[in-house]
Amino acid sequence: MDENKIEKIDALNIKPVGLGEELDQQKDENRKLKAELVHTDQELEFQNKEKDKRAEELLIAKKEIFEQANIIEIQKAYFVDKQLLQATLEAIGDAVISCDSKANIVFMNKVAELLTGWDKKEAVGQPIEAIFDIVDEATMEKSENIVMNVLLSGKILELTEKTILFTKERIEVPIEDSVAPIFQENGEIVGAILVFRDVTEKKRSLKNIEYLSYHDKLTGLYNRRFYEEELKRMDHKRNLPLSLIMADVNGLKLVNDSFGHEVGDELLIKTASVISKVCRSNDVSARLGGDEFIIILPNSDEADTVKVMERIQSYLKKKKVNGLDISLSLGAETKTVMEEDINAIFKNTEEHMYRQKVYKSSSMKKKTIDLISNTLFEKNGRELIHSKHVSILAEALATKMGLNEDGVNLMRVVGLMHDIGKIGSPDSILNKPGKLTIDEYDKIMKHPEIGYRILSSVNEFSEMSECVLQHHEKWDGTGYPQGLKEEDIKVEARIIAVCDSYDAMVTLRTYKETLSHEEAINEIIRGSGSQFDPKIVESFTDMMMNGERIILS
After folding, report:
1. How many other C-beta atoms are found inside a 10 Å radius of the C-beta of residue 470?
2. CA end-to-end span of the chain, whole Å?
3. Which one of 38, 405, 462, 544 has the fewest CB atoms closer than 10 angstroms to its CB?
């Protein structure tokens, strides 16, 4: 009890005279009061201790609740992170497998399921080697356990480029992959993650690129790049005698100009197929570019080379393109000792080939032009009739104008050939029943140039090629394709222009009305000095009106 309080109580214990009993009674009451105060203080002290104890218990309970809340939040965050990580691994395009520290599978995404053929439920808990069965593509021997190597080394490792994965169904899949270790904060390795992908398409693309880098896309033969590398490699004494054969397709440009590049390509493809057919497995055949081919023949002497060329020509006789024979000029040379320069051998081969081409090509081109004319007339009978009419009129007009015999003969042939360039025009335009569109007319207007390219390729036709080129030029310079005028236009072309126009007017056409003989002559006269040479118009009208009538059947 508080000493001050007791002292105050004792101070009240006064004993005045005559008041003894009252004082004793008062004293007893004071003692009782003192005892009650002591009890009260003890009670308060106990209550305070209980209150402190309760507060401490509340504080502990509050702390436990707070910690529990933190644990829940951490668990929530961990769950979200886990879900996010799993969703990420599922979403990526590569296959992913994660393993524990013993190289047993704990997770695999759907891509991994698809590539391996194993369901996740089957795979989880199994050793990685049981699911990820890989071999070396070259040896087909089983590869090392790359996951275990990573767990032991703690380093990121990658597989070799030529790795094959066997699926659950034992299907071979070429793959690329890498494996990385998973570390705890203390640096302990607790697992590894394997990432891999199917590289079938990648390898196919690389093979295509490699193929195209060494092969001619059109014919499938090797290209110039490969040929040059192989020639260096094969220029060795073990391959002696080493022979070269060079081949050149005669008339390819003529075929392209006449029938189009699709027919020209077919010509090259069939030529390549024949060359491939006569070659042995260790021979090298290549397309150098354009119309030229080359064959490398190791361990082949001159006699062997001649036999190969004979087989080529024999097989070619059985091949045709659009009714056209395939003609090759061939040349060959043989290296017999290492002292001979292989480049000189190539040059000699080329010279032999060109020497043959000089006398063979002209004959081939002439045959091609005959075929072109026949092809044009076969696919369009109206062109045949028109060309014959123009030939008859041109021959008669040349005679009327006093041209010599050679000039008259030239006009007869030019009349037949003047529209040969129409071989390059689509049948849909040549046979169209109605009027031509602007675009179609633009295509038709190219026929003089096409005809010129066809005929100028052959010496015998080179003179008439200029006439064919210019037969749509006009006296006043408004014609095509060069816009020539007056005397700049060859006289033969001016003659053809008049004869061509007259027959076009009097011959039946599905897309326009046919004019009578008199009407056509009047149109020719109306064009004198603008479209036609006035002197030629005068000679033509005199021949057609006053001379013996020319019958066009």
Report:
1. 23
2. 157
3. 405
Residue 127: strand, helix, or coil: strand
pTM value is 0.61
CB atoms within 10 A of CB 316: 18
In whole angstroms, what is the distance from residue 251 CA to residue 320 CA? 14
Q: What is the largest CA-CA distance in the chain?
A: 196
Sign of the CA dihedral 61, 62, 64, 68? positive
Query: 334 and 304 in contact (C-beta within 8 Å)?
Result: no
CA nearest neighbour of 472 among 446, 454, 453: 446
Give the tens place of pLDDT for each residue, 385-415. 898 899 999 999 999 999 999 899 899 889 9
E-state strands within 154-303:
157-158, 163-166, 172-183, 189-198, 242-249, 284-289, 292-297
The strand ranges marked E within 339-384 are none
Q: Look up residue 120 and give its two tokens.
A: 């996740």
Q: Which of 472, 470, 467 is nearest to 409 (CA)?
A: 467
Q: What are phi and psi of 507, to 5 degrees?
A: -90, 140
How does 516-542 read in b/e, with b if 16+ C-beta sit within 10 Å?
A: eeeebbeebbebbeebbbeebbebbbe
Task: DSSP letter for 216, please.
Answer: -
